[in-house]
């Protein structure tokens, strides 16, 4: 597979190196970045072409897959362009930041008639989350009763806005909770309490996000994006007969170290599935459903109570 990677920032650069050095069955053919110097540096390291637009990359005859790692608000345009070429796509999370744009992407894929988009929700490939999913499914500790989640980042990029606490960060918990429970999320509530003095002007941080699934499973999420001491993502699952803990005390400089193995598995699964004409992980429907949760979450940041998640009917393609 000859991949065009769009966005050569933190995540794009990491995926470029991964595709080149760890993944079998794929290599990087083109690197696209609006910052051409950045594209050139990344492209040079793997012997690929550096380009300024996705259109130029898609015009190269050898390019037959696309990995999107630009900021989330730019994903829709790139997704629609790559879909129009009927290429396999790995799109970093979020699929798009809001439900309406995510639904347009789903509709475009439905019109194409086959699943081409895999969304980069890497926690589904993390060994800890996989083990927890198995324990829940096999019922060895009884029924799952509650989830307590902590999601801490040391700091944020300069253009990080308050809604991105939800759309950029808690989107991972929406994904993880849907993955673990095999259910849709019904409502989201956000509470603000005492905040850190170390957050940029205009951002209340941390926030507490309260989530309920369709069957009444409750989850609480502490989202704290200026935690300074490091990156820590933890989940405690409470069962009728015990608890399971993932990640608590596993402090790394960033997501790159914490989830490095998960990204490797995610990208390898994408490549293997794409070569069979399939996807190997979360779908555009999962991207849409989590975007709908984000939309409820952003509304909840400005409401006092829970906000219901509104979902369209699931198209046949994803059933
Ligand atoms: N799965 C994860 O754990 C994880 C971790 C980090 C980031 N992400 C996601 O990856 C994506 C990128 O995040 P990042 O942290 O690498 O951001 P970043 O800002 O480090 O990199 C983004 C890159 O996109 C480029 N870019 C911006 N506009 C462009 C355009 N119009 N055309 C081409 N290139 C353009 C920028 O120049 C930059 O190099 C986001 O969707 C983010 O949510 C996922
Ligand atoms: O873009 C990043 C990335 O998705 C990380 O996995 C997450 O922990 C951060 O909160 C987010 O800002």
What number of structural domains do the residues give? Answer: 2
Q: Under the CATH scheme, which class of the largest domain?
A: Alpha Beta
What is the strand tally? 13
Ligand types: nicotinamide-adenine-dinucleotide, 1,2,3,4,5,6-hexahydroxy-cyclohexane
Terminus-to-terminus distance: 28 Å
Average per-residue pLDDT, rounded, comes to 98
Q: Architecture of the largest domain, CATH level 2?
A: 2-Layer Sandwich
Strand composition percent: 15-25%
Order of helices and strands: EHEHEHEHEHEHEHEEEEEHHHE
Major sheet: 7 strands, mixed
Helix content: 25-40%
Shape label? globular
- CATH topology term of the largest domain: Dihydrodipicolinate Reductase, domain 2
Class by helix and strand content?
Answer: alpha/beta
Q: Which radius of gyration do the C-alpha atoms yield?
A: 19 Å
The spatial strand order of the largest sheet comes to 12-11-7-10-9-8-13
> What low-confidence regions span 5 or more consecutive residues with pLDDT below 50?
none
Summed up, the helix count is 10
CATH superfamily of the largest domain: Dihydrodipicolinate Reductase, domain 2
Protein name: Inositol 2-dehydrogenase
Domain Gfo/Idh/MocA-like oxidoreductase N-terminal: 1-121
GO biological process, one term: inositol catabolic process
Catalytic activity: myo-inositol + NAD(+) = scyllo-inosose + NADH + H(+)
């Amino acid at each position: 597979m000859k991949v065009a990677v769009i966005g050569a920032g933190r995540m794009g650069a990491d995926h470029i190196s991964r595709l080149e050095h760890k993944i079998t069955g794929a290599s990087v053919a083109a690197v696209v970045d609006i910052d051409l110097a950045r594209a050139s540096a990344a492209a040079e390291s793997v012997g690929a072409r550096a380009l300024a637009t996705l259109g130029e990359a898609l015009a190269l005859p050898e390019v037959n897959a696309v990995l999107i790692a630009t900021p989330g608000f730019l994903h829709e345009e790139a997704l629609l362009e790559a879909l129009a070429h009927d290429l396999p796509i790995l799109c970093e999370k979020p699929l798009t930041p809001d439900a309406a744009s995510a639904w347009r992407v789903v509709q475009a894929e439905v019109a194409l008639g086959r699943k081409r988009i895999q969304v980069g929700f890497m926690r589904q490939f993390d060994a800890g989350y996989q083990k927890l999913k198995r324990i829940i499914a096999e019922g060895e500790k009884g029924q799952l009763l509650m989830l307590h989640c902590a999601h801490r980042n040391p700091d944020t990029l300069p253009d990080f806005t308050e809604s991105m606490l939800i759309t950029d960060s808690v989107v991972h918990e929406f994904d993880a909770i849907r993955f673990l429970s095999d259910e849709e999320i019904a409502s989201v509530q956000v509470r603000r309490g005492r905040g850190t003095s170390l957050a940029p002007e205009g951002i209340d941080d941390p926030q507490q996000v309260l989530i309920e699934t369709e069957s009444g499973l409750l989850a609480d999420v502490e989202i704290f994006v200026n935690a300074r001491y490091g990156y820590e993502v933890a989940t405690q699952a409470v069962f009728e007969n015990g608890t399971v803990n993932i990640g608590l005390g596993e402090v790394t400089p960033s997501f790159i170290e914490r989830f490095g193995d998960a990204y490797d598995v995610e990208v390898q699964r994408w490549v293997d599935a794409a070569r069979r004409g399939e996807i190997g992980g979360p779908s555009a429907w999962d991207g849409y459903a989590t975007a709908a949760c984000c939309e409820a979450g952003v509304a909840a940041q400005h409401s006092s109570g829970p906000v219901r998640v509104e979902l369209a009917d699931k198209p046949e393609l994803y059933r």
